[in-house]
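URGENT: need a sanity check before tomorrow's submission.

F., can you look over the PadR family transcriptional regulator record below? I want to be sure the sequence and structure line up before it goes out.
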Amino acid sequence: MSLQIFILGILCEGHRHPYDIKKMFKQESLAPEIRITDGTLYYHFEALTKRKFVEKMTTSREENRPERTLYGITELGREALVEMIYKSFRNFKEVSDLYPCILFIHHVSRERVIGMLEDCIEVMNKKIRRYEKIWNEVPPESNDHPIVLNAKNLQEHAMNRAKTDLEWLERVLERTRSN
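Structure tokens as predicted:
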């Protein structure tokens, strides 16, 4: 999941401290498999600041706590968010790569993203057809070989995952069309 898309998307909703964004990311279970360290988070805030996508709004300190800097998104950052979302759709490989894009899909052109979702669906259909072709080419006499039997288990998992991803993309497309 692109942490920069998540940061920019959240900042489109209002000013935030990096730590608040980290808590949101983890509390909402948006990507529980992804570990976000403070170093990673602050690295991305620094990179976004250098590119003038975000800016420091205020800095405050409460008692014995470290300084807290409130960030906001710039107009350049809003434009970058849109382009990052489109780029993620264009470079589609895995459904999980689209998670931040789906969260902030309301920031992009509905018509354009519908076409991009249709392209992602075609990529998944091609992947499924490729899996089917590979397994249809396995000679029947090799079906009893242990490696082939184990490979079929892997293929079954990959095929089921691809079909589940395809169904999910189709639902996202339908919801996007109806909104």
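My own read: The helical segments are 3-13, 18-27, 38-50, 75-90, 99-103, 110-136, 146-178. Residues 3-103 form a domain with the Arc Repressor Mutant, subunit A fold (CATH 1.10.10.10). If you see anything odd, call me.
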